[in-house]
TrEMBL record:
Source species of the chain: Roseomonas indoligenes
Superkingdom of the source species: Bacteria
Molecular function per GO: 3-oxoacyl-[acyl-carrier-protein] synthase activity
EC class (word): transferase
The protein, known as: Beta-ketoacyl-ACP synthase
Pfam families with a match to the protein in the record: ketoacyl-synt (PF00109), Ketoacyl-synt_C (PF02801)
GO biological process: fatty acid biosynthetic process
InterPro entries in UniProt: Beta-ketoacyl_synthase (IPR000794), Ketoacyl_synth_C (IPR014031), Ketoacyl_synth_N (IPR014030), PKS_Beta-ketoAc_synthase_dom (IPR020841), Thiolase-like (IPR016039)
Biochemical pathway: Lipid metabolism; fatty acid biosynthesis
UniProt similarity note: Belongs to the thiolase-like superfamily. Beta-ketoacyl-ACP synthases family.
Length: 415
């Protein structure tokens, strides 16, 4: 089985997910379709002097004092375990292909700094000197360390690839895995995105960019993509993993096919640190590139899993891009972020998983908190209630800060 360009079809044979809604695909999917929100008040650190005090945190057992890389690794491992178990590929601890991990950048966080400052000198030179010989800090904050430990745990082959492309990171990891299979480098791989950066410094930085919602009074109502009163995204955590395989290899071993990653498109601009170029070329180009890569026309798309962050700028530009690509016949679009928040580096992978489930079950997840339509958003955003639909192909959008945009086309198994 080959695609329109003669490349191997890429099948998905296993999926795993962790979000603020729960652990595991089944729990997450049922709650998404029910329109439930996982946004809550932050309890893992003091928030008294912060403008935003809510997030979609994933509260792991024994989470006290975890730094972001540790949280990322634990969530990623949970998602991989679920995906590999469903795919029934290889043997335990010996996965027959490489690992592609999307995760956020890593830094020395305040708990590390406070522990070093207690050595007597709180200046950076003093803390640097106190860190000498602290292998624990070095190993925790080594960017590639998470991927190396996951690769060792699951027995993947070759050097693990770790990447970050802002909010498009999870989709980028999937694209890298798809292209490796298409090039014939492997018959299988694990692609995932994970993010656990709800910590003081990250929250403050996004707040200073005026990117975060400050609707702290009712956390479940704070994330409002495409709605008139939207006022920023809600920072969240999560992880999603996909086992990708050559369709021929998967069928040969009798695997159950969840769906296909039929196409991937990317396009970047360097207009602004957080804003898209007003001409929309990068957003439009990424969507069109994904469709072309899949060999599809705009009319073939049944549903769009939107980037839909809930910031005034992003939602306006996504509406613009959708109209440019689909014209007056735009398919329904909804935002999972209305329920799970913006999981940043994990978002593209989580939304790919939910797109596959949309095809499998013929159910469009809603965009909740859609109380007052925005006249400038002219799309069918599946407001508030899930909807039955026949879905063959889904376009999943991931538009990242700094103009890093990746779109995926997910499709059902060929008949």
């Amino acid at each position: 089985m080959r695609d329109h360009l003669g490349r191997p079809l890429v099948a998905v044979t296993g999926i795993g997910a962790v979000t603020a809604l729960g652990f595991g695909v089944k729990d997450n999917w049922s709650r998404l379709l029910a329109g439930q929100s996982g946004i809550r008040r932050i309890t893992r650190f003091p928030t008294e002097h912060l403008k935003t005090t809510i997030a979609g945190t994933v509260d792991l057992p024994g989470d006290e004092g975890f730094t972001s890389p540790v949280r990322v690794e634990r969530m990623a491992a949970m998602a991989i375990e679920e995906a590999v178990a469903e795919s029934a590929i290889g043997t335990k601890g010996a996965f027959p292909g490489p690992l592609f991990l999307g995760m956020p950048p890593v830094e020395v966080e305040w708990p590390h700094r406070f522990s070093l400052a207690r050595a007597g000198d709180p200046t950076y030179p003093g803390m640097t000197a106190a860190a000498a010989g602290r292998a624990d800090i070095y190993e925790t904050c080594l960017y590639g360390g998470v991927g190396e430990r996951l690769a060792a745990r699951f027995g993947t082959r070759g050097a693990p690839i770790t990447t970050t492309t802002a909010c498009a990171t999870g989709a980028t990891a999937i694209q890298l895995g798809v292209e490796a299979i298409q090039r014939g480098e492997t018959d299988a791989c694990i692609a995932l995105g994970a993010d656990g950066t709800v910590q003081p410094e990250a929250l403050i930085r996004f707040s200073l960019l005026s990117a975060l919602s400050q609707r702290n009074d009712d956390p479940t109502k704070a994330s409002r993509p495409f709605e008139k009163n939207r006022a920023g995204f809600v920072m969240s955590e999560g992880a999603a993993a996909l086992v990708l395989e050559s369709y021929e290899a998967a069928k040969a071993r009798g695997a159950t096919i969840i769906g296909l990653v039929a196409g991937a498109g990317e396009r970047a601009d360097n207009f602004h640190r957080t804003r898209s170029n007003p001409d929309g070329r990068a957003i439009v180009g990424a969507m069109r590139n994904a469709l072309a890569d899949a060999g599809l026309e705009p009319g073939d798309i049944s549903y769009v899993n939107g980037h839909g962050t809930g910031t005034p700028e992003n939602d306006k530009m996504e509406n613009f891009g959708m109209r440019a690509v689909f014209g007056e016949s735009a398919p329904p679009i909804s935002s999972n972020k209305s329920m799970i928040g913006h999981t940043l580096s994990a978002a593209g992978a989580l939304e790919a998983v939910f797109s596959l489930l949309t095809i499998r079950d013929g159910r469009l997840p809603p965009t909740i908190n859609h109380d007052e339509p925005d006249p400038s958003i002219t799309l069918d955003v599946v407001p508030n209630v899930a909807r039955d639909a026949t879905v063959k192909h889904v376009l999943s959008n991931s538009f990242g800060f700094g103009g890093q945009n990746v779109c995926l086309v997910l499709s059902g198994e060929p008949r």
